[in-house]
């Protein structure tokens, strides 16, 4: 199932170019267009699932597979001493692209703090 308006579905279908880091029948991974660290790859299911809220029990194996690919892809891309995985969800999570994706972020140097603490919190 694909969403014709979804940019990540288009990347999965090869209709929009992306620098791929992984590809199989269920999952693809590609470099983020606006990397925040030397390694910044997005792992997505080929099938359109808008957000983690929309994933069901039937998606458990797929989500597990995506997460278990993260260390392999991180290593292959040169993040050999640690990395961070992030899944932004919905408005509060500030998810920009409504097609589930795992950010894999790393590089030679330690990353910044996970969340910037607001002054008022
Ligand atoms: P989100 O905020 O939804 O968790 O993250 C979406 C990510 O997708 C952002 O980091 C953004 O840079 C990336 N992105 C958006 N459009 C494209 C695109 O067309 N190609 C690639 N490679 N990355 C994209
Ligand atoms: Zn999609």
Write a structural description.
The chain has helices at residues 7-12, 60-76, and strands at 20-23, 27-31, 39-45, 83-86, 102-106. It is α+β, with helices and mostly antiparallel strands. The chain has a single domain, classed as 2-Layer Sandwich (HIT family, subunit A). It has a five-stranded antiparallel β-sheet, with helices on one face. A hairpin with a 3-residue loop joins strand 1 and strand 2 (27-31). The N and C termini lie far apart (41 Å). The mean pLDDT is 96. The structure holds guanosine-5'-monophosphate (5GP) and zinc ion. Zinc ion binds next to helix 1. Guanosine-5'-monophosphate (5GP) binds at residues 7, 16, 18, 30-34, 42, 88, 94-97.
Identify the notable features of this structure and list them briefly.
121 residues, alpha+beta, 19% helix, binds guanosine-5'-monophosphate, binds zinc ion
